[in-house]
Amino acid sequence: xxxxxxxxxxxxxxxxxxxxxxxxxxxxxxxxxxxxxxxxxxxxxxxxxxxxxxxxxxxxxxxxxxxxxxxxxxxxxxxxxxxxxxxxxxxxxxxxxxxxxxxxxxxxxxxxxxxxxxxxxxxxxxxxxxxxxxxxxxxxxxxxxxxxxxxxxxxxxxxxxxxxxxxxxxxxxxxxxxxxxxxxxxxxxxxxxxxxxxxxxxxxxxxxxxxxxxxxxxxxxxxxxxxxxxxxxxxxxxxxxxxxxxxxxxxxxxxxxxxxxxxxxxxxxxxxxxxxxxxxxxxxxxxxxxxxxxxxxxxxxxxxxx
Length: 306
Known about the structure:
Elements: H1 2-31, H2 38-56, H3 59-82, H4 88-111, E1 126-127, H5 137-141, E2 143-144, H6 146-164, H7 166-176, H8 178-183, H9 188-214, H10 226-236, H11 241-261, H12 268-272, H13 274-289
Antiparallel strand pairs: 1-2
Helix pairs in contact: 1-6, 1-7, 1-9, 1-10, 1-11, 2-3, 2-4, 2-9, 2-10, 3-4, 3-9, 6-7, 7-9, 10-11, 10-13, 11-13
């Protein structure tokens, strides 16, 4: 039982950053902008969190900075795709490459060292009175990082936003039938920008969790493919908030298992491949067995009607 609880606790912690970015990817894709830039948007959020904590001496200032940096990155990418009709695949990959290089350079400029930043103030775990005394549930959720609790609140809020509000439904139409939205006199670009801003906020929170939630420093390319895992979880969950979150937990659980197995095997490199193999397996099964099911207009430029 101790082994199971420890693995599940690790899975929750490892799922959190992926889940934030998965929900961001769902919202972005549903609006008609593909989510290939999530790796870079998440990475710059991780950098912003450390920079904010370093400059202001407060991890919560770091969280705000993470959100700001990620929103700026997602907005710039949206501007390229919407205003200039840039190829979304190229702009997404370009954003990832640019952010990886820019953050590595800034680490060298600001902290005078290559590879990682100085240690900064990080978020401390919260203990929820009452829950921590409940058997099993208390072991899993009684004491966690505050961004874990925020995620638990965000999941139903985003589900309601996307499925039960006019604004969320219009964002979905922008990704499915943008010409219908335009025929009603509504700006497709408005809803796509809003979706990208919201995705930037969520990605920033996920990035902040990586650098000042789990750790207390930034290292080059510390996202290690989690942005791509989030995109795979989005596909696995059929572009839905709840389904995507379940997919994120699958990858987080796989990561937790490989961490637990490393202490009992000789060739740990093969064990470390487990989360990535699960990602590839999920994508192969999904795309090999049926139609994609992606939003019809996702990844396609749309010329706003005047």
